[in-house]
Amino acid sequence: MTTTTDALHLSAGSAAAGPYALEVTPESAGWGHSGLRVLELAPGGTHSLDTGLDELVVVPLQGGLVLECDGQTVVLTGRRDVFAGPTDVAYLPLGATADLRSDRGGRFALCGARARRRLPVRHLPVAEVPVELRGAGRCSRQVNNFGTAEVLEADAVIACEVITPGGNWSSYPPHKHDETSDVETELEEIYYFEVAPGPQGQPGLAYHRVYGTADRPIDVLAEVRDRDVVLVPHGWHGPSIAAPGHDLYYLNVMAGPGPERAWRIVDDPAHAWVRGTWAAEDVDPRLPLHSPAGTPSIGASRP
Length: 303
Description:
Blueprint: E1 3-4, H1 5-8, E2 9-10, E3 20-24, H2 26-29, E4 34-41, E5 45-50, E6 54-69, E7 72-79, E8 89-92, E9 97-102, E10 106-114, E11 122-124, E12 131-134, E13 141-147, E14 158-164, E15 169-170, E16 175-176, E17 188-195, E18 206-213, E19 216-224, E20 229-232, E21 236-242, E22 248-255, E23 266-267, E24 297-299
Parallel strand pairs: 1-19, 12-24
Antiparallel strand pairs: 2-20, 3-4, 4-10, 5-9, 6-7, 6-8, 6-9, 6-10, 8-11, 12-13, 13-14, 14-22, 15-21, 16-23, 17-20, 17-22, 18-19, 18-21
């Protein structure tokens, strides 16, 4: 049976639960490892949570907060919005209770994964978040690598965020990571989208594609709007296409059965040739968007 768009595209608000504007758990997604919640706090708002079986990376999407966990206090400066540059993040271990408070209010992503090891609470300052420019020309995008294996110590969760200027394609060429081999790791993936409005506040849109292999069919072509989600249990995924005039943001949350925490991908052979064209093109001059001080790395090895 082919899994289709209706099952894997969650429109904004459709997966709200309790205090969360979005709640995707391994159980609700029908898989075993990765999850994502989005918490919205009014000015002066507070929230307490138990991480349970999951480790979490707390990512300010808008605003800042103070959290207390395991006797430690972490102050997250945050940011104006997801298009204002990278943010500092916090790591919370499994089996912990955390108290969150936001004096000015905001919106915060809780990127989760089922974990086996209990690691300490940590704060990753924004100055230590690598900003990478991938692709070239109309395939240019910016990646803020706050939660990749090389940057943040964790047991299972892998997370990053991608900013694609209006009119560009990202997650391209289409790629997959649903098997374990020397060139690929098995990872479930969540795409959480935010779409910048037009100059007069017009709502934007984007498109996201997921399609399967012969033995594991899947067929998704989603018109995504601000705060929508697409689940990728397996298969080739990409492109993510930003409409002209509307910059596109997405937060990727990944986890798999392990035991290795790594992000290795293979390109769809029908489209892999596009990487070879990037050497003759420049990176889109609109990038980086509000990167911190320093020179971003330039790379084309990742989707």
